[in-house]
Amino acid sequence: MNDQIELDRFDSRRSTAYATGGMVATSQPLAAQAGVSILKDGGNAFDAAVATAAALNVVEPTSTGLGGDVFALYRTADGEVGAMRSCGGAPAGATIETVTEALETAAEPGRYYPESRGYAVDGGTGVTDLRMPFLGPHAVTVPGTARGWEATVREFGRRSLADVLEPAIHYALEGYPVSPIIAHHWDGAEELFTDEHAREAFLFGGESPAPGQIVTLPELGASLQRIADEGADAFYEGAIADAIVGEVRDAGGVMTHDDLASFEPEFVEPVRTTYNGATVYELPPNNQGLVALEALNIAEEIGAGEYAYDSPERIHAFAEATKLAFVDGHHYITDPAYETVPPLASKSYARERARAIGETPVREPSVGVPNAPAEDADTVLLTVGDEAGNLVSYINSRFAGFGSGLVAGDTGIALQNRGASFSLDPDHPNRLEPGKRPFHTLVPAIAALGPDDWLAFGVMGGYMQPQGHVQVLSNLLDYEMAPQAALDAPRWRYREDGTLGVEERLPAQADLARRGHDVRVLPPVMFGGAQLVRRTGETLAGATEPRKDGVAIGV
Asked: DSSP state, 341?
């Protein structure tokens, strides 16, 4: 049989999708169709990105929403590479002192509290072990999504904000069937939602929905319709803003109307490096894009991609490069308006750090963000390409699941808990300060693989994101995998506790353990989802992986 058509040679779990008129890849089929519908109706990749993100706000509310932040890396049809960062900071009244005082005041001596609430109480002697809460009002930072969506279509799109929000509004008001993985993540919300507004908005008869159950989110649909009619100002001023401020303050927080009204998204210069002939673009601080770039630089310096793919030497080299990048990134990366971040993406810096890597694991401890809950956080990513040559990597998140557990009044808008990444240590670069943006895990990416070969991509899942970038790029560049195979390949992940998490099908596990790695086999869900769209000449290739309900749809 001709080996060019022998199906056995395709060892990926699905094939790469190809098209010429456009491509949308994301984690939920209905959302991908929303983006495709905009492309078919004359919109471009930027319009489709917002339509897809808004639809995910409805059909995958367990991972994203209007109450969170949004980021983009993009390459326009005329060759411009740029980035958008639309994330708000801490309220003007949020200080280490105000949060500490609030936690101490709220605590009942002798009662033990879950760490998610920010503190524990030691046997009746008082409050101990204070930290930023994972849930509740003090974890809420100013949401950036609404103005980020609006800025995207205003600056680069062809359609109006109302046009691109229409599919999401339809799903919210008319209903949609919940897909299985999303139903799984929704399960347990009954315990998370102590807030009455949250229970009314996202539970049905007091319970989370079953797979295939048709649900409507009328309150969220009404808020989306108001934004479609009035623009993003409807979120930051007026009734929606009243509801957000009221919800946070009633729960003991310090959000004000001025905090919301003063927010504006930013178009920023990406940070970049080169790896094996490709130029890789990431978001600058306060995002963790520098972690990916430093890891790539160190990996290139030690020749990590020159080892055989199935060898323990390859995995050891890449994991150690990533480990060192995390040590640096978690210590230094913060809002650059408040602290200077070293040149972590420079080749010279990588040469210095690479000297620490040998045959056995580096024992340098990870200097993580104290009480950092982002280790296994999840989110949504989408990638879009259009016929004209625009490519967009777009990521939208509330941080953890339904965020803080608070829903703003009757708006159906769940508020993010990104403030949980702040530190209450006054000496830490990522310490809580008024107006400051927290360390952000979200990192969409763009890469130029050749003169007419561009890639929009990303990997979801907290600290998995930058190390997922490293692995996907290496698969494509060092081992010349097809797009879908590059996402399907088994992954490893360096954990903040120093262990090396691996998928069960990853090779060389015993050899890695003999080298001194503390190897832990983790379920596939721990390694994030991923999407990519690659444009080579006039051909668009799309890929997504089955760790979520993802799909790539071409036009």
From this structure: P
Any idea which of 56-65, 75-84, 334-343, 503-512 has the lowest mean pLDDT?
334-343
Q: Within the chain, how many helices (H) and strands (E) appear?
A: 18, 21
pLDDT digits (tens, 9 = 90+) for 123-141: 444 555 577 888 889 999 9
Whether 423 and 430 have beta carbons less than 8 Å apart is answered as yes
pLDDT single digits (tens) 523-541 = 888 888 899 999 999 999 9
One-letter-per-residue 3-state SS of 495-545: CCCCCEEECCCCCCHHHHHHCCCCEEECCHHHHCCEEEEEEECCEEEEEEC
**How many CB atoms neighbour CB 180 within 10 A?**
10
Annotated catalytic residue, options 64, 152, 334, 379: 379
- Give the DSSP letter string of 376-412: G---EEEEEEETTS-EEEEEEE-SSTTTTS-B-TTS-
Residue 109's contacts (CB-CB under 8 Å, 6 or more residues apart) are: 121, 124, 125, 126, 127
| Cα 362 from Cα 502, distance rounded (Å) | 18
**CB of 32 closer than 8 Å to CB of 15:** no
Closest Cα partner for 73 from 269, 273, 274? 269
Q: State the pairing for strand pair 519-521/500-502.
A: parallel
- With beta carbons less than 8 A apart as the criterion, state whether 457 and 531 touch: yes
Helix (H, G, I), strand (E, B) or coil at 416: coil
Q: Cα separation of 95 and 46, whole Å? A: 37
Handedness of CA 287, 293, 299, 301 (dihedral sign): negative
Distances (CA, A) of 113 to 215, 248, 415, 421: 34, 20, 22, 19
pTM higher than 0.70: yes
E strand map for 15-119: 17-19, 22-26, 69-75, 81-86
> What type of residue is 228?
A
Contact status, residue 202 vs residue 393, Cβ threshold 8 Å: no
How far does Cα 227 stand from its chain's mean position?
A: 24
Model confidence at 463: pLDDT above 90: no
Q: Cβ distance 470 to 445 under 8 Å?
A: no
Asked if 145 is an active-site residue, the reply is no
- Phi-psi region at 451: left, alpha or beta (left = phi > 0; alpha = psi -120 to 50): alpha
Lay out the sheet containing 278-282: strands in order across: 17-19, 539-544, 530-536, 453-459, 445-450, 278-282, 271-275
Q: What's the rounded mean pLDDT across residues 297-307?
A: 97
